[in-house]
Amino acid sequence: MVKIVVRLLISMAIGLLLQTSNVWAAELAIVIDDFGYRQHNEEQIIKLSPNITVAVLPNSPNAHHIANIAHEHGNDVMIHLPMAPFGKQPLEKDTLYPYMEEEEVDRIVTNAVALVPYAIGVNNHMGSLMTSSQIGMENVMKALSYHSMFFLDSKTVGKTAVREAASLYDIPVVERDVFLDDKQNEAVISQQFDLAIRVARKNGSAIAIGHPHPQTLNVLKHKLANLPSDIELIKISQLVTPLTTESKPKVTLKYILEHCINQLEDAWNFNNNLNK
Ligand SMILES: [Zn+2]
Q1: Which residues form the signal peptide (predicted)?
Q2: Residue-range domains of the chain with CATH
Q3: How far is the CA of 84 from the centre of ligand 1 (A)?
Q4: What is the pLDDT of residue 269?
Q5: What is the full DSSP assignment across 230-266?
Q6: How much distance in Å is there from the Cα of 238 to the middle of ligand 1?
């Protein structure tokens, strides 16, 4: 019995420790994409934290400059690669289509790498049509395999061919969990941010994607200044693991608390059995 009480006390002490330390914090990565058109807003976003990841449209007027500024500030830089959507929308130059030849896709990807210095990965701009196409995404992954990049699936459509295509070329893949600002309304963006936190607590980590809108900037300013102590803002690169490395389940506050509760239940049952 004494042994069990000691174990319980240790578990509870760990639980308390967690409330004041972020050693086992759940991880939240925030990627702000569509960079390259709104320099003022983009610089403000970069200034918020070096742990915010920025994704730059390669053919935007300010691509090279803003990628350099982000890198100098310590932020992870990604290429926001334009891909064809199902619907009719204004498209970026060099938007990728499933019908394109392998050589054409390779030319566009190689250009994008040259236009966005310091990029370590890629996420899709739009792309509901392109990312659904197995052959299209195989061409993209093949082109990316020459540049040691990972792929963040923005998930602009329910089912994509990203993972399957990437696995053929050993390209690491991560996926977006929450879009912050589909609605450019601060109350809604704030709710989406809280949703990302809940996902991070549940899964150990979460990836949220937003855009350089003034409303998003305002919400991020407030939310990041008041981040709960069990949540850590991290760079996207911290969530990317090579495919060959087995990922370990992450120890989160929820995991530890559940562990403590299990131990309490065990002790309770043990005590009841003794008294029978
Ligand atoms: Zn975009």
Answers
A1: 1-25
A2: 21-268 (3.20.20.370)
A3: 11
A4: 66
A5: TEEEE-GGGG---TTSPPPPP--HHHHHHHHHHHHHH
A6: 22
Q: What pLDDT was estimated at residue 5?
A: 59
Average pLDDT over every residue of 200-214: 98
Q: How far is the CA of 80 from the centre of ligand 1 (A)?
A: 7
Residue 126 burial class via C-beta count within 10 angstroms: exposed 0-12, middle 13-18, buried 19 and up: buried
Contact 108, 124 (CB under 8 A): no
Encoding tokens for residue 71? 């890198």
In which residue are the tokens 């994607």 written? 209
Query: What counts of helices (H) and strands (E) characterise the chain?
Result: 9, 9
Q: Please, are residues 156 and 175 in contact by the beta-carbon 8 Å criterion?
A: no
The answer to whether residues 221 and 43 touch, using CB atoms and an 8 Å cutoff, is no
Q: Select the more confidently predicted residue: 11 or 176.
A: 176
The Cα 255–Cα 253 span in angstroms is: 5
